[in-house]
Amino acid sequence: MKRAAALCAAAAVVATWPGGDATAGLVGGLGGLGTGLGGAVGGLTGQTLSPLASGVNDTLNGRLGAGLNGPIMIGDLGVDHAGEGLDPSSLRALRAARLRALIQANPRTLEADKAGDPVRKGEVIAISPSEALLSEAQAAGFRIVERRNEEALGLSTVVLAAPKGKSAEEGLRRLRALDPNGAYELDHLYEPAGAGLGPSSQAIAPPRGGGLDLGAIGMVDGGVAASPAFAQARIEQRGFAPGGPKPTGHGTAVASLLVGEDGPFQGAARGRSLLAADIYGGQEAAGSASAVVSALGWLTERRVKVINMSLVGPPNALLERAVAAAQARGILIVAAVGNDGPAAPPAYPASYPGVIAVTGVDPKDRALPEAGRAGHLDFAAPGADMAAALPGRGFGEVRGTSFAAPLVTARLSMARAESSGAVAAVGAEARPGKGPVGRGVVCGACRVDPRLVRAKK
What we know:
The chain has three domains: 2-105, no CATH class; 118-188, Peptidase S8 propeptide/proteinase inhibitor I9 (Alpha-Beta Plaits, 2-Layer Sandwich); 192-453, Rossmann fold, CATH 3.40.50. Helix content is 23%, strand content 20%. The protein contains nine helices and 22 strands. The protein has helices spanning 2-11, 88-105, 131-139, 168-178, 249-259, 289-301, 317-328, 405-414, 420-429, and strands at residues 15-16, 24-25, 73-74, 79-80, 110-112, 118-127, 143-150, 155-161, 184-188, 191-192, 217-221, 234-239, 261-262, 265-266, 273-278, 306-309, 311-312, 332-336, 356-361, 379-382, 386-389, 395-398. The chain is globular. The relative contact order is 0.13.
């Protein structure tokens, strides 16, 4: 209840789930209050909704991973789950409240940086440090927590614990003072650009044989659950958070839009291999930059053609280097711009140079009003009034830039050309849209009408 009060005070918004459990929370990422607000949530008894869900939308109107039933209403702002009616300042306030709630819910592992973004508590990442510097840091009270070497990306890092009683920000300042020419960064968290992260009760999608094809797709997200939509799909999963990969609704939905196939539901890149890197492991205080980098290292090593990243967060020097290293090896990276509205800070990794930044449009090719922004915008794709697979069985109706990004990823993976040639080929098929859509709308025919598959709302 303490978290609920803090959120309501910050955002002055309450969401209700009509017709069922006595469960109240804030929409999308703000729904991460779980059992503290009235017991079981929808169909996942005892599970919690995670604050790691991003923005007002990108939520299954049904029960994508959180098991929610019924429409979502945002009472004080007088808008529905479509996000229409929310002004940019309201969306920005919701984002700030969501991030504060996440930090308050995980005081042992998270703290805020100077911008209010969540970071791993008391930890600083040294990028390719010398042994002399590490000795100097230890003499100054720092402790080595972990060494990592991402050979495929040419990156080595050392995680350092700040001196006792010092925050991550204070530790960062001390290291930069010790070594002004060194490279140091905080371990920021990255949210799925959408729905509840809570682990599904369904099994993880089983691996299937058959080597990788030339257009293999990588995905950095939550885990992918078993579903009839993946009966013919070649999916390999690997976890980059403690406990191994855990299925989530968000990861399942994104994967289905890529390689799913079940009757009238057809993923936009069906037939391609999918390598899914789970950076959350079903935990709300996960998805750190260091986990994302390790995931990128694995996907780069496996030589995928394109990587989908339906997640958002702040700029981070380590992540920027990893993205650039993957790109230098010929890999295309596609990222959603998020759903925190145009007044939110620019989303990363979408804002990094060369990353294909994607927004969403409705069936009339109008840009979603809740779509976030990036330093540049490349394409738009369907992001509303569309179906995606649920964990276990069936489909739900989805909305948000998370679900537009995989459609662009799919088109890039299907292009015969590599890298810039593939981008040009996809650009050639783009058509005009209404509002900010970059080069235009692609994969318009990839939208699966929720009515065709009896998607849950």
